[in-house]
Amino acid sequence: MTALLQLSAVETDIGGSRILRGVNLEVGAGEVVALMGRNGVGKTTTLKSITGVLPVRAGAITFAAQRIDPLPSDVRARAGIGYVPQGRDIFPHLTVEENLRLGLVVHRRSRAAAQAGLERVFALFPVLKEMLSRKGGVLSGGQQQQLAIGRALLTNPKLLILDEPTEGIQPSIIDQIGDTLKKLKISTISEGEATAQARQEASEIMGAVRELKRAGALAILLVEQYVDFCRDVADRFYAMDRGAITISGPIADLTDAVVREHLQV
Length: 265
Hints:
By secondary structure, this protein is of the alpha/beta class. Helices cover 40% and strands 25% of the residues. It has a single domain, classed as P-loop containing nucleotide triphosphate hydrolases (Rossmann fold), CATH 3.40.50. The strands form two sheets. A six-stranded mixed sheet has the order 6-7-8-3-9-10, sandwiched between helices. Strand 9 and strand 10 (244-250) form a beta hairpin. The model is unreliable at 170-191 (pLDDT under 50).
C-alpha cells in the first residue's frame, strides 16, 4: 500500500527536551491506524508534529507525496489533514451551526457542496442537527466531541487525525461520569442517567468512525486508550514508549500479551 502519510526518523523537542526519538510511522489511503501507548509517551506530540503545531527537529514528514514538515499548519490543513485535538477545542460561545460552518472556510465550495457536507455530518451525528442553535459550551462532552469531528470532516480531509475521541465519555470511570454531570449542568440528573448518556455518546462516536472506515473515503490516524475500540476499527497499530515506536503490526497482532507489555501501566 502506498503511504498517504509517512514519518521518517522524526525527532521533536519541547522546551529543550527531546520528546520524539526517531519515530517512523505510515498511514495508507483509506486505512485506519491506531497509535497507542501509556500517558506521556509522545502520542500527542506526534500528532502535533504532523499538523505543524510543533516543529520537528529532524527527520521528514511526507503527505500525499509532498514533504510537509517545513510547511505551516494552515497549508497542511488545506492539503487535506483534518485534526481533532485532545480536549476538542470547539468554540464554546459560538452555536453548533457556527462551529460547523467554520470547517467550510478551509476550501471554497459551492452552496450545494457545502450543504452536502453538512448533511454527511448530520447523517453521522444526528444530534448536531437537533442542536444547531445551541452554544457549543453547553453541550455534553460527547456532543462536543461529535461537533469537533463534524467540523473537521467539513474541511474535506484526506486524513482525519483523532486524539482520544472517547476521552472523558467512557462511563466505566467514575471521575469521567462526574465530569459529564458538570458539563450537562443539570443538577437533577442521576448518575445512572449520566452513565447511559455517556455510553450512548461513546457508541455514536465509535459508530461514526466505523462508518467512515466502511466508506473508505479517507484515512484515519487514531490515538485511543480504549483497546477494544482500536481492535474493532483499526487495520494496523503502533505502540509508543519514551518517544519511540516499540512495536507495530496488523491489528490482529494486538494481543493481550502485547497490551500487557506495551500499553498497561
